[in-house]
Each structure stands twice: as structure tokens, then as C-alpha cells.
Amino acid sequence: MGFCGWFGKTLRVNLSTGIITEENIGQKVLSDWIGGRGIGAWVVAGEVPACCDPLGEENKLVFATGPLTGAGVPGAGRFSASAKSPLTGTILDSNAGGRWGIRLKKNGYDMLIIEGTSAGPVYLKIEEGTASLHEAGDLWGADVRETNDKLKDKLGNETSIACIGPAGENLVKFASVMNDGHRALGRGGLGAVMGAKKLKAVAAKGSRKVEVANKEKFDFMIYEAGKWLKANPITSQGLPEFGTPVLVKLFNALGVFPTRNFQGSQYPDALNISGETIAELMTAGRKGCYGCPVQCARLLKTKTGTTLGPEYESIWALGPECGIGDLDTIVEANHLCNQLGLDTVSTGVTIGCTMELEEKGIFNTGLSFGDTTGMLRAIKQIAYREGDGDLLAEGSRRLAERCGAGQYAMQVKGLELTAYDPRGLQGMGLGFATSNRGGCHLRAYMAGPEALGVPKMVDRFSAGGKAGLTITQQNVSAAIDSLIACRFINLAVSEEYFARILSAVTGVDYQTQDLHRIGERIWNLERLFNLREGFDCSHDTLPPRLLEEPIQEGPSSGSVVELKPMLEEYYRFRGWNESGVPSPGKLRELGLEDFKC
Amino acid sequence: MLKDFQTFGRDLFLAGLNSSHSGNLSVRCGDRIVITRRGAMLGHLEERDLIETGLDKNDSNIILASTEIRVHRAIYKGTAALAVVHAHPVHAIALSLLEDEIIPLDSEGAYLLHKIPVLSAEHTIGSQELEEKLPSLLKEYKIVMVRGHGSFATGQLLEEAYQWTSSLENICRIIHITRALKGEVKDKRSSKYKEW
Ligand code: SF4
């Protein structure tokens, strides 16, 4: 097999020694783990020592592209980064669009591994297959826009920048890595990992062509997939016109749009912050990832200029989750988080938690629900670890536990939950509880079948039958995150298409079932890593509020998450024992028997 | 309104005019449209399967609407219809692969529909081409076949659009059976409808 889609090369950069090497990646590794999240998990699980400090020298940061990156597949211009998370202590990956991933790949690398720690601030330049480290003292302290501008001035407009802001430098546990100015590897604190390594930015520029094995089949599959993207109202109308904020009104109407740190589940003024209102009042244009026809990002007019608009999760986290419904404030808070390099979701949920602690008289910060000025101030304090911001910068779990009130942190395994109240979406509850990177909606996205009818509509209030469906969704997501393709595209184009496109690009014969199996292997490896780090079945749970306090009003009133029966079924269906440990037989079946946990 | 959707959705399925998850129904209410949810089972419609959105203007419900919504919208904008039924009647689909128009042989079919045009399009599902071509045909004909895909029927009520769909399939069954019998068709009236 020759390499098509992949280059079969890793660039390894040791920041402690300054040594930069190029390595080959075996064909079996590529075909078994594909790229992105899969190959990232393979490196992190294999190379990061057990129980190491995520902000220490031993943690590694793996940037990975996939075989589809740069091959001209709509929605597949993405890349991912993986490491041990400083926020959760679990294995972590996050992926983003933009151009950076394509430009890294066009240097002839599928993967970039960063290890060690630099003595002082540096940036890494990768240009046409040559990599070099450069002193970055003048960039340290700069926000994302300034870093981007300064590096682009120096290196040219054809260079893409992935960088951290002050939050990453200050080791905020949920600092993001920002690429191409506004794209975020948001969740889990990859920005802090970069900050701890004193790596301010990675600049990439490249022009190598990504070869496709079977052009005829490839063209046909792109044509076929294009038909579905055009036909499906999600990708042809909803996302292009409203972006992800299209979900605000829908989930609010279902009574699963959490407010005030999950104390409520419907926001009375949701229409004011909905996709419809943003489109009418603020939208100045559409943007999106390179080569994607959907272009789901919104360019918004603000009082001070233009900015990329908040996504659904950010609107919620910086809005109703904090009791805030003022659109201008939400847009400003989103912009601030992006410039400082903060994950909008964890920022908002941690502030929401602080507001509830204030409300209950547990932690006196003067920050109350609905306080717009206070929220904007808190965001800056978090990024610079000033005053109470120093504690908030540790995330909601550590914050609430230090106040002796851990139950008020809306998180799973330390990662803050997102904009779906699982009490009205049972499968989302199971998905959150079992997610390998903590409270993430995207690992299973059970809101697809439970609210959007993708792939089929199921009863959102029923716990029955959710375990099997959640497992399938998790496995498929792990595979799609490895190709690496956009999950919005996956709402209109099924994994069957991706298997065929992958075969056409790589020349390796993949069937749908192979993607499921690869996804299952990734999921189990991530589980093994977490078990090794001390996580067990007691961590597969939800905040007590979601298990014990029924939703008070609205269309989902009266429900709590019925986690226990779903979880028992889940472990059984996964081939894990009742403590959530994969059986030796399952590990053999997946080729993971050599991994030590 | 739910009751009407349930009645005709179920009848379409039971009559074999749709498979389990195919087809869609809509009605126009002023500048709004109510359409079946993408992927809904017409034989088992529930409240959550009826999606209301703008006739011209999208709102967030668009992401739940049937894949064919753009064609339904175009039909409402280009005709006086208040209801649209899109179905996949098998005999009619088979015939549409062979013919450019379907001329009823039976007198009831001829009386009701006279002639059913067959429209060809490269993309047939949620397609811009159909959006452009179907409304003008549906101004003149009660029901139109899209080659190899299915039928679009209009009416003032869902019942009416359902009736044309049911009649079309009967017409096509009779044509199939007649052709299978291989005899000479003695009644020549149908040829008159060629110019309809
Ligand atoms: S749908 Fe949006 S996020 Fe996904 S690839 Fe396209 S522009 Fe990027």
C-alpha cells in the first residue's frame, strides 16, 4: 500500500532540548487509528507516563490531522490536539476548523508531537517541511489577535497561527488554543498545556498536495455527499442562515435549555438571544472552514466593529447559564474569551457556579446572576488570575469543592457541562456521564436522536434503549473525529459516505462497520487511559441536582436523569464489567491487550 | 390539523403509496407552512412530527423540517394550493421510468386527472431544479410525477391532494396490468388526453 491521504510522517519537537526530528508512522498505525483523535489517543496513551502532572514536562501535546484533511472533502479541513487534561486529569482531545490543520498537513506531516518544556517563551515555525523554534518573549502577554497579527506580519499572510492568549500563559485550567484568529480548541485546557511548555504559538505554512488514491470514486462520492448537504435543511438552510444559534429556540422550547447554573430549564427571553434575532439585528456576513459549503460561522456587527459571533454553547454559557439575556454582553464576553484564550463554556459555567455560591451565601464574591458588568470583569480576572479569578481559573469543580459545596459544580469528571439539561434528554445524561473527556455533549450527541431526529427520533424521556444507541453514537463520533470531519456535516451525511470517501482517498478498503470498530477501539483506549489515571465507575456520574431534583416547570417538568439502569446496561453492552473495566476478551478483540492500566 | 395529517399519512402508508419513512405532507396557513418532520413515519404521526416554519422566511424550526420543504414552499408560492402531498407510489414510479407522460386508460382516471406529466431532474430530493420546474406544471395539472422519484399533488385540503395521489396509483396499476395482459386495448378514448 502506498500512502494516499496520509504522508506517514510525524514531526517531533522537544522543547527541553530543542531537538526536532522527523519520524515515520507505520501503515498499520494509520489504518487502525486513522488520524485526529484516534492517533492522538494512541500517542498520549502510549507515551504520556502514568499519573504525570498535566502541566509538567512529561505531558505531551499532539496535533494531528486526518487522511481527509486537505484532500478537498467538504467539512474535513480540521485538525485535533490531544494531551492529558489539566482540568480533568483525563485523556483529552479537541478539534477545530479553519486553515491551520490543512497548512500543517501540507508540510507533509500527519502529526506534530510537542514534548518537554522550554526554558523561555518560544514559537514554532513550520514552513514547507522545515521546522524551527524561535524566541517569543515579545509575544508573551499578547492576546490572540495581537499574537496573530504580529506573527502574520513577520511570516506572511499565507501562514496560519495556532496560539494561546494570556489565559494559557497563566495556566488557567480551561485555557484554549486559538487558531486562525477565531477558531478554538476550546475544551479541557490545552491552552494551559501549551502555556506550561512556554510555547506561545505554532505557525504553519505548506503547499504539498494531498494525493487521492481513487480520483473517480472520490469525485463521485463528493458529488453524492454534496447532494445531501444541499438537500438537508440543516446544512442547506438552518446552519448557513442562523449558525449554531439556530438551536437556542428549539432547545428552549423543549424545556432543556439550562439557566442559572442548571436551576431552571427554560429562559423566558430566549428569543432575544436566538439565531433568528442575531440574524436580523447583528449578522454582517457568513464565515466558515476552508472549503466547506455550509459556512456556519456568523460575522456580527457590534458597537465597536465586527466580531465572529458566539456559537450556541457560548451564547448559553455566557448568557442564561449566568442569568444573562443581554445579547451585546454575550457577544462581548465571547469576544473577550476568544482574545484572552479561554474556553467559553467552562468560563460561563464556572461563573454561573460562582453566582449560585454567592446566592446561597457560600462564597462571597459580589457576583450575582444577571450581573453583566461583573461577568465581564470576572472573565478578565480569570485570564490573569487576579483576585477571586485565581480560584475560578481552576474550574467549577475545584472552586466548589474548596467552598465545601462540590454539588453545585455542573461538571462531569471536572469538565463543565454544556447547553442541554439531560433531565429532559435521558440519553444526553448517559452520554455526559460516560464521556471520556468529562461533561462533553459531542462525544455521543444524543440530542441528535432525542431532539433533532438524526438519525431517527426517539423518545427523549425514556431511559429504555438508550445504552446501545449512546454506544453507537460514541463509537461513530470517535471515528469521525479521527478522519477528521465536521460533526455538523455528519448530521446530513452518514458515516457510510465517510467510509466510502475515506476508502477513495486512502486506497484502503473501509466499510461502515470498520469505522464503528475503529471508534470502539479509540473509546476503549481512552477508557484504559482514564482507569490508569485513577478514574473508575464512581466518576461515571452527574451532578446530584440532575439525578435528584426534578425540573420544576415547562415541557420537561418532573423528570430527573435515570442514570443507574442506563449505566448498568451501558457497561454490559460495552463488554465491560460492573465496575466499568473492559474485559480481557473485549481488549483482545480490539487489539488493546498490551495496554497497561 | 394533527388529525388530518394522521389520517392521510396513515392512509398513504397503508395503501402502499409510501414506504415506512418516505413521503411528506404540508399545508399552507397564510405566510406559514406546516410540514412533516424530516424522517417522520407518515403512518404514525405525532404532534412532534408537525413542524411549522415560514413560507418565505426561515426560522429555527427549519432544521427539523422535511428535506422537501423547499419544493413545498415553491409550490405554494407558485400556485393557489393550500395542501401538498408528496408520495412514492410504486406503480407510478415504475411507469415514470418509461414514459414522458402518463395517460390513464380507465375512465375514472381519465375523468379525474386526464394526463399526468413526468418531469425529469438530475437531483430529485430537496432539489432546486424541482423548485423551479414543478410549480408551473402544478398550475395546470393536479399531480405531477418526478421520474424515478415520486408524485407531488396539490389541493385546497390534504384530502384532495391525497385523492389525486391515490387515483394516480390506481391509473398506473391498471396500465401495468393491461400491459401485462398483452392484448389490444379496445377503448381508444385515452389517446384524446395526449393533448390535455
Ligand atoms: S459546518 Fe461549519 S464548522 Fe463544520 S466544517 Fe462547515 S463551516 Fe466548519
From TrEMBL, chain A:
Residues 6-208 form the Aldehyde ferredoxin oxidoreductase N-terminal domain. InterPro entries: Ald_Fedxn_OxRdtase_dom2, Ald_Fedxn_OxRdtase_dom3, Ald_Fedxn_OxRdtase_N, Ald_Fedxn_OxRdtase_N_sf, OxRdtase_Ald_Fedxn_C, Tungsten_al_ferr_oxy-like_C, W-dependent_AOR. Gene3D superfamilies: Aldehyde Ferredoxin Oxidoreductase Protein, subunit A, domain 2, Aldehyde Ferredoxin Oxidoreductase Protein, subunit A, domain 3, Aldehyde ferredoxin oxidoreductase, N-terminal domain. Its cofactor is tungstopterin; [4Fe-4S] cluster. SUPFAM superfamilies: Aldehyde ferredoxin oxidoreductase, C-terminal domains (SSF48310), Aldehyde ferredoxin oxidoreductase, N-terminal domain (SSF56228). The keyword Oxidoreductase applies. GO terms for molecular function: 4 iron, 4 sulfur cluster binding; electron transfer activity; metal ion binding; oxidoreductase activity, acting on the aldehyde or oxo group of donors, iron-sulfur protein as acceptor. Keywords: 4Fe-4S, Iron, Iron-sulfur, Metal-binding, Oxidoreductase. Belongs to the AOR/FOR family. PANTHER family: ALDEHYDE FERREDOXIN OXIDOREDUCTASE, TUNGSTEN-CONTAINING ALDEHYDE FERREDOXIN OXIDOREDUCTASE. This is Aldehyde ferredoxin oxidoreductase family protein. It comes from Pelotomaculum isophthalicicum JI.
From TrEMBL, chain B:
Residues 3-176 form the Class II aldolase/adducin N-terminal domain. GO terms for molecular function: aldehyde-lyase activity; metal ion binding. One of its GO terms (cellular component) is cytosol. The keyword NAD does not apply. Pfam families: Aldolase_II. This is Aldolase. The lineage of its organism: Bacteria, Bacillati, Bacillota, Clostridia, Eubacteriales. Keywords: Lyase, Metal-binding. PANTHER family: 3-OXO-TETRONATE 4-PHOSPHATE DECARBOXYLASE-RELATED, FUCULOSE PHOSPHATE ALDOLASE. One of its GO terms (biological process) is pentose catabolic process. SUPFAM superfamilies: AraD/HMP-PK domain-like. The keyword Metal-binding applies. It comes from Pelotomaculum isophthalicicum JI. SMART domains: Aldolase_II.
